[in-house]
Design brief:
single chain; mainly alpha; two-stranded antiparallel sheet; 20 helices
């Protein structure tokens, strides 16, 4: 069976929506996906697929818990802890920076925490006379991809929701992704450890120093002006307990309730478990820590999280509608990829992720597609790092952190992609894909 002319037209519609939506990002990405669904269904007569409801509900529940944590002051507390850790080993900032920044991303599932400490990474590096480009570039890459090792990130929610249909336990995903992330982070940091000239020998830094343009980052130790909110520590503890409950109950089938309906036994699905536990966690934080009602959804985490939900909703529905209607054709065309060249799928996933600008959306699109192609779920989990190519074209984090480096060593480049973040990003993706594949062979 082959694709006819109408099928190619439908594919062109999907690719156009992905390309245009990828440039717009966020809500624009979701809106472009919605337009694609309208064209496919109303214009071309394609039967609509089902939106990824389970994934969307997990992401929404996680956003609710994290935004309440932010309203309680818990995220600010984590930022101050990160700053203290960064200042403890200034000479090793190129290694310490990426691990510290990504550690807090792993805990709370959002890059917000890391973005708040990027200026500290640049300041500590410059104060220690370490070329800031090294620490900043590796930290931004590692923290941005840290969501692949976070049990509470939107990207992990997408992966858990998809892989739960394949009988994969929550702990199995974490058993692969966490060590993979840590090893790949070390590789990324090592790749820039000796990068470029030393700070005091850098021509741009010398120029800024001579012209008086350069000043040491003002503000010093941010924790001196920080006042911890009452209940912030308690909120962090409750949030972490919620994570532990989700992992424990999701990983041990005997802890999840079962229901008998006729001859069929139904067990509580992992996505539903995460949804209810994280909503309950948000409620407990609100009540115990007395979080004001105006703080529930006023922070940056809630706003950026809902933007991500819209993006996933629209574009995943669009691609799902097309792929669901051509499942057999695609399976026949790519049936050999599972045995002959599975890593070609990784290349395709990476290319898609470079224009999507959202690991969550890339995961939602590519992982179900990989399963349709006949790729084993353990292979897709192991090579998940290939879905994190959004660093190729500099985005908000890269642009902002380039400005944080007042020495001028971190650069965006003159050809868009020849920027300071390219080397650690590529090293992370390549090493993470290979290492993850090896680890998945041990776990499964």
């Amino acid at each position: 069976m082959e694709m006819d002319l109408m099928s190619w037209v439908q594919l062109a519609v999907v690719l156009l929506c992905v390309a245009v939506g990828g440039r717009l990002g966020g809500v624009g990405l979701g809106a472009a996906g919605g337009l694609g669904v309208c064209v496919l269904v109303l214009g071309l007569g394609v039967q609509p697929g089902s939106p990824p409801t389970s994934v969307l509900l997990i992401i929404t529940a996680v956003i609710a818990a994290t935004s309440v944590l932010q309203g309680s002051g818990g995220l600010d507390l984590l930022v101050r802890l990160a700053e203290k850790m960064l200042r403890k080993y200034p000479k090793a900032i190129t290694i310490v920076g990426p691990f510290v920044c990504s550690l807090f991303v792993m805990l709370v599932g959002t890059a917000y925490v890391a973005f708040a400490v990027y200026p500290v990474v640049a300041e500590v590096a410059a104060s220690a006379r370490v070329r800031p480009e090294r620490a900043v570039s590796a930290s931004v890459i590692s923290a941005g991809i840290g969501v692949m090792a976070s049990p509470m990130s939107a990207a992990m929610a997408a992966m858990v929701g998809i892989m739960s249909t394949q009988g994969i336990a929550f702990w199995q995903i974490l058993a692969v992704t966490v060590p993979t992330f840590l090893c790949a982070t070390f590789c990324a940091a090592l790749s820039v450890f000796w990068r470029g000239k030393e700070l005091e020998e850098d021509p741009e830094f010398q120029r800024r120093l001579a012209s008086g343009d350069y000043q040491w980052l003002a503000g010093g130790d941010l924790s001196k002006n920080y006042e911890e909110k009452k209940g912030a520590k308690t909120a962090v503890v409750i949030f972490l307990l919620g994570i532990l409950v989700s992992i424990l109950v999701g990983s041990v089938p005997g802890l999840r309730p079962e229901w008998i309906s006729g001859d069929k036994v139904t067990q509580l699905p992992i996505p539903s478990l995460i949804q209810m536990v994280m909503l309950a966690t948000a409620f407990v934080i609100i009540m115990v820590c007395k979080v004001p009602s105006d703080k529930f959804a006023s922070g940056s985490v809630f706003r950026s999280g809902l933007i991500g939900v819209v993006g996933v909703f629209g574009i995943a529905w669009c691609t799902g509608t097309f792929f669901d209607s051509h499942t057999q054709v695609l399976s026949d065309a790519f049936s050999g990829i599972a045995s002959s060249a599975p890593f070609l799928f990784c290349v395709a996933a990476f290319c898609v992720s470079t224009v999507i600008f959202s690991p969550t959306v890339s995961t939602t699109i590519m992982m179900p597609l990989g399963l349709k192609f006949g790729l084993p779920p353990e292979f897709l989990i192991g090579t998940w790092a290939c879905c994190y190519g959004d660093f190729m074209i500099p985005g908000g984090a890269q642009i902002g952190c380039t400005a944080f480096d007042r020495t001028g060593t971190t650069r965006l480049g003159t050809f868009v992609i020849n920027h300071s973040y390219l080397r650690p990003g590529l090293v992370f993706v390549v090493s993470g894909t290979v290492i993850g594949w090896l680890i998945s062979n041990l776990v499964f």
